[in-house]
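Note to self: keep these together.
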Amino acid sequence: MASESQTSSEYVNHHLMHLNNVGETPKGLVDLSVLNIDTLFWSISMGLLTIFLFWMAARKATSQVPGKFQCAIEMLVELVDNQAKGIVHGDRTFIAPLALTVFVWVFFMNALDLLPVDLPHFIFVAVGLGDLIHYHRIVPTADLNGTMGMALGVFALMIYYSLKIKGLTGFAKELLCAPFGSHPALWIFNLGLNIIEFVAKTFSIGMRLFGNMYAGELIFVLIALLGGSATIFGFIGHVFAGTVWAIFHILIITLQAFIFMMLTLVYIGQAHESH
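Structure:
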C-alpha cells in the first residue's frame, strides 16, 4: 500500500531500487554496495528450498503406494525427463536433473512475485530494521543481474558440452568452418557468425525471463498504488485487480520457468550436434 507521504512516482521508484548497502560500510572491509544483496539472498534461499524439496522427496520415497507429494514429484520428474530425452541426444545423467532443478528453482524465484510488494518493508519495520534497510526487491528474476547470471551459467554449459562432445579440435573446426564452408577465406565470417549466435543465445535466455518478470512486478506495484487512495473505490479496485492479476500471474511464473528450462535444454542439446 502506498504511503501518504509519497507521490506515485516516488512510490514506484522506491520499489524498483535494490538493497545494495546496509548502513555504512566499515573501512577495511569489502564494499558490498556493488552487489544487489536482496537478489543474492532470495536466489540462494530459493535454491536451498529447491534442494530441501528434492531431499524430502528422496527421503520419503517408497515403492509402496506413494503419497500425494511423491506423486507430484514423480510427475514433474517424468515431465522434465521426457523433454530432455526428446531434445538432448546423448548422456542425460547430469542434464535431466539439471533441467529439473532449473525449473523448480526459477519457479520458486518467480513465485516470490505473488507476495505483497510492501511486505518486506512492514517486516523490517516490525523487527526494528526500518531505518537501516530502505530498499528491498524480493523477486530475483526481476533483476537483470540475476537472470543474466543464470544465462552465463547456461553459456558455460554450452561451451563445456561443445568441448566434451566434439573435442577441442572438432569445436574449433565447427567455429571456423560452419555454416558457410571450410575455405580459409570464409573462416572469419564463420567465426563471427558463431560468436554472434552464442552471444544471442545467452542474452535471449536472460533478457526474456527478466523482461516478463520485471513487467509483472511493475504491474503489482501499480496495483498497490490503488490501495493508497483514500476512497472505497480505490480499495475495491486494489483488491479486485490484485486478485485477478495474481491468479493470472500464476500461469506466467510457471510458463517462464518452463521456457527457461526448455531453452536451457535446447541450447545444451545443440551443443551435442554438429552443423
